[in-house]
Amino acid sequence: MAYEWDFAIVLENLPVLLRGLGVMLQLWLSALAFGLAAGFVIALGRMAAAAPLRLLARCYVELFRNTPALIQLIWFYYAFPIVIGVQLTPFAAAVIGLSLNTSAYAAEIFRGGMQAVPRGQWEGASALGMTHAAVLRRVVLPQVLRLMLPAFTNRAIELAKTTSLASVLAVQELMYQGRLLSATYYRPMEILTTVALIYFMVIWPGSLLSAWLERRLARHG
Amino acid sequence: MADIVLETRGLCKRFGPIEVLRGIDLQVRAGERIAIIGGSGSGKSTLLRCLNFMETPSEGEVLLDGVPIGAPRRHRDGRVTTAYSPAALCRVRQRVGMVFQQFNLFPHMTVIENVMEGLRTVKRLPRAEARGKALAQLHRVGLAEKLDAYPARLSGGQQQRVAIARALAMEPEVMLFDEPTSSLDPELVGEVLRSIRTLAEDGTTMLLVTHELGFAFHVATRVIFLADGVFHETGTPDAVLRHPQRERTRAFLASHAEFTF
Amino acid sequence: MRYDWDFGAVLAQAPLLLDGLIGTLRIAAAAIGLGVALGLVLALMRLSPRWLLRWPAAAFVEFYRNTPAIVHFFWFYFAMPVVLDVSLDAFLAATLALATQSAAFYAEVFRGGIRSLGPGQWEAGRALGMTDGQAMRRIILPQAMTRMVAPFLERSFELLKTTSLASTLAYGELLFRATQVNSATFRPLETYTVLAGMYVLLLFLFSSAAGFAERRMTAFR
């Protein structure tokens, strides 16, 4: 059997796919920024002095890590509006879902990193009369951010792949455009393969960066 | 001569641009105990490792019972090298046992399983027969009471004695010891050397790379001082260790002055 | 905002949800089995001295690790059948997508485990006269296995979550059944909350069992 390839369709519709890529990048970067910020706050909650706060933060992390991201997106699009009484756009629901999902993982990276700093440094800095926040900002974070960099890069890669789930909510990102085009022209092979390659070209450099960071960290400790 | 068990002719080994062995001619007769000594980087471990093909020789031949190992391969430019098939090397290694500096016991197996492994997997002996042979060798190295312990529970000296039993169980014609006591704490060296000495008294043919010059003096029938990838001086222990003829040998022995006979 | 919670209507659909649970477990089991087998082959190829084996396996692994799972699901369900002129049902397409994607990750688990053993163990096996195959089977793999347990379980945990993507192919797993429950009850908040709860429970049970298995399998150390 000879399948007749037709990549002209792909070329014609490349602008549509690139528009989808633009939306994907918006999703990715905004969810990454929100997710890291929220993750930092949750990490502080995980290490708080008050036990109820610690428990709450722990439940949050476990909840998001023990459910599929797709279900989180669906929940924020279909269920969450009922709780708050406001209908969300698909894009907003996707950003919320992806951000909170990322925040749970980011919290664990922050926590792991900060706990890697020896107690003595906290105490030493406190002895200098620095406040807790100042110790965190000036002593702890500068040291651990470097250690955490590979883990954060990996998380960013996972997030980039997870943005494709927003297509299920009809967010017009890359995967959505790919699904639409392949249904319209009935050329799923050419179009979906192209979509996969675009994702690959965007995400692969991140993987190479992550591998390089890990090697560097292994060398210099 | 008929009683030459192991022989090398013009053995060379290069790692990239570095020539580690430069034409080694060695004949090992049955029952001989050869101690190979030399500074670090002299190529003594590499020589041993070429004999059971842990390293592939770059040039030259290794003969076992007079039969060359590998098949000559003629290149287009007229050079002739030796090609070694995996199956041929497996057969050689069953006949030439090796004990490593780092013991390399199998940590997921008990002591008796370690010693039985080669008999079961390579020689395909029935379980009972393999167990019998393994027990006999563990008796020989004095570890019959540790059969079911995992290596992690043993001292370094005990681990090395298990490794010796594991190699012996295959009933090799020649035993190779690659610095068997170098990674042991000083107080554990004695028990391993005693085990090796027992084998020597039983007439086992062996080659031993070692820094234990005192042990070499008492146990070896021949001592080879290796330097820069060639035999610099060879002879009886008395000749090489007590009356070295060459300056380089004397300097080496002087730097190991702590040894006593 | 006042909202009248009503779980009754959703719980009345329990048989449908249980059917979905079985679907999820079925697809996860099939994908783990196939994925592990394929992953082992890929790992051995990547460890081979021949570049003709090494290179395609590396490309496969890199491609799958750097593209979103949902693209693979659609590719196997819509694209591949068109080219090969076969038809795959949703179960088969989803299993193939999950298995190939997971194989890329399992391959790295195997490779990492095998490479974590130094050359000494290989040499000890060879010195007894073992072929490389015997050394691999008797010496290397059994030890590598125990080091692989933790990353293997982590990957399988991710796989279990990714099964939810099979719903996009209308395969009757948990999420798909939940969307059916939702259209029957018009209770998205309750439906998707129950669904999330089921996943939390399922994954909690999985991690507990995994933790138990891990302790058992690494006991000899």
From TrEMBL, chain A:
It holds the Pfam family BPD_transp_1. The chain crosses the membrane at residues 27-49, 70-96, 191-213. PROSITE patterns: ABC_TM1 (PS50928). Residues 17-210 form the ABC transmembrane type-1 domain. It comes from the Bacteria. Keywords: Amino-acid transport, Cell membrane, Membrane, Transmembrane, Transmembrane helix, Transport. It is a multi-pass membrane protein. InterPro entries: AA_ABC_transptr_permease_3TM, ArtM/GltK/GlnP/TcyL/YhdX-like, MetI-like, MetI-like_sf. NCBIfam families: HEQRo_perm_3TM. Belongs to the binding-protein-dependent transport system permease family. HisMQ subfamily. Part of the binding-protein-dependent transport system for glutamine; probably responsible for the translocation of the substrate across the membrane. This is Amino acid ABC transporter permease. It comes from Plastoroseomonas hellenica. The lineage of its organism: Bacteria, Pseudomonadati, Pseudomonadota, Alphaproteobacteria, Acetobacterales.
Automatic annotation (TrEMBL), chain B:
One of its GO terms (molecular function) is ATP binding. It is a peripheral membrane protein. It holds the Pfam family ABC_tran. InterPro entries: AAA+_ATPase (IPR003593), ABC_ATPase_HisP-typ (IPR030679), ABC_transporter-like_ATP-bd (IPR003439), ABC_transporter-like_CS (IPR017871), MetN_ABC_transporter-like (IPR050086), P-loop_NTPase (IPR027417). PROSITE patterns: ABC_TRANSPORTER_1, ABC_TRANSPORTER_2. It is found in: Cell membrane. Residues 6-253 form the ABC transporter domain. Keywords: ATP-binding, Cell membrane, Membrane, Nucleotide-binding, Transport. Belongs to the ABC transporter superfamily. This is Amino acid ABC transporter ATP-binding protein.
UniProtKB/TrEMBL annotation, chain C:
Part of the binding-protein-dependent transport system for glutamine; probably responsible for the translocation of the substrate across the membrane. Gene3D superfamilies: MetI-like. The chain crosses the membrane at residues 20-44, 74-99, 192-213. This is Amino acid ABC transporter permease. InterPro entries: AA_ABC_transptr_permease_3TM, ArtM/GltK/GlnP/TcyL/YhdX-like, MetI-like, MetI-like_sf. It comes from the Bacteria. The keyword Flavoprotein does not apply.
